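4.2 Preliminary Data

To establish feasibility before requesting continued support, the project team ran the inverse folding procedure on a target of 194 residues. The structure was first converted into the token representation described in Section 3, and no sequence information of any kind was made available to the design step. The complete token record follows.
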């Protein structure tokens, strides 16, 4: 049984002034490098989904794949491209701007997906779903592509079509902390540097 990971770096980062968030430096490293350090040891294959700065992302030593659909359609377009590239039994997805991602979250999602034979396992932080942190089985690729082809984008609406399991993940709260503003980046930088 094989597991892959797609790290989402294909967004427009409007709240960061359009900067490419995965390449923003945090305590001496691009944010995507921090995510890769956590994810790569846990999976058989890893790809980065990016739609710009492809050469810069290629320097991290994993395949870089673009959305196959035009127009920056969001996380599900990145997941679809990742599933095509990976062809693994399971695919873990997370965003590039989660530099505090914990390996235990990845393991918990994968184990729940396997144990419950769910189509998809998604993190729940105790208050709400964290829908871009999930493990999905390759068998749902046709469902995902049909959902996107119908013009749908909202990730939790796709979940309604699947057999999903929600993982209690309040113990992994740091994993969901992403960097959307310069203020958040500076705060994280201070923490990591102290």
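Position-by-position output of the design step:
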């Amino acid at each position: 049984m094989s597991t892959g990971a797609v790290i989402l770096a294909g967004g427009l980062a409007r709240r960061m002034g359009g900067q490419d968030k995965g390449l923003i430096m945090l305590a001496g490293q691009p944010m995507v490098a921090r995510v890769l350090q956590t994810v790569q040891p846990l999976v058989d294959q890893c790809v980065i989904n990016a739609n710009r700065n492809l050469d810069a992302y290629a320097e991290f030593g994993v395949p870089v794949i673009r959305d196959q659909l035009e127009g920056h359609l969001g996380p599900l377009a990145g997941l679809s491209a990742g599933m095509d590239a990976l062809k693994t039994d399971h695919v873990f997805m997370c965003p590039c701007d989660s530099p505090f991602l914990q390996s235990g979250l990845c393991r918990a999602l994968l184990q729940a997906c396997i144990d419950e034979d769910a189509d998809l396992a998604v993190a729940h932080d105790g208050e709400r779903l964290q829908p871009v942190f999930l493990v999905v089985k390759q068998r749902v690729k046709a469902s995902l592509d049909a959902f996107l082809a119908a013009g749908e984008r909202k990730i939790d609406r796709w979940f309604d079509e699947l057999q999903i399991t929600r993982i209690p993940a309040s113990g992994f709260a740091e994993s969901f902390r992403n960097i959307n503003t310069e203020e958040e980046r500076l705060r994280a930088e201070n923490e990591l540097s102290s």
